[in-house]
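lol ok so funny story. i was supposed to be doing the assay writeup but got distracted and ended up predicting the structure for this chain instead. priorities right. anyway since i did it might as well share w the group, maybe its usefull for someone
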Amino acid sequence: MTGEKSGAACTFCGQPITGEVPEQSNPCEYCSSPSGGYLHSILLTEAIGGPATGYVEGATYPQILLSISRFLLDKNDDKLCGIATIMMHVACEVAIERTLSDSFARKGIRSLEESVAGVLNGYNLANDKVRDLYTSLTGDEIQEQPFWDSFIRSAKRRDHIIRKGLIVSRTDAEESFQAANDFLAHMGR
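and the output, tada:
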């Protein structure tokens, strides 16, 4: 199997993984991410049939969650806009959690990961403490990105959906989708 493409990609840098099987995952040969692509990348085509299959084949969890959000929005049922918005932010938070985990490993401080996770109140970068930790570990000043203001509006919208029962318009849900999509694209760089 050496040299053959496996269909997986590194979840940190996005490069295709070649020459190994998921049970024998090695660090990415391009960026040395310990995830090697397999711990965070799954194939769901056998578990999910029908039209949803194209949304999840060979994708990471954040990509799958964002794709499911798009699938819900494409149903043209306004009652699904709130659920789709929540799922978009779950996708972003999963990406952050995985990025932090990879960063702890790259810096050789994996032993701190569990203790720090116990102190955090989630992985939402709209939270200043979480963003400060993220910036310290990654060096990424994500709040300087062009999508940041839209992402913050969307995070507040998500909070209002959960805590206050906000009914989200299609326009707002589409803005949230674009913000989450831009956020995840940035995380994938």
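Residues 43 and 57 are 5 Å apart (CA to CA). DSSP finds seven helices and four strands in the chain.
back to the writeup now i swear
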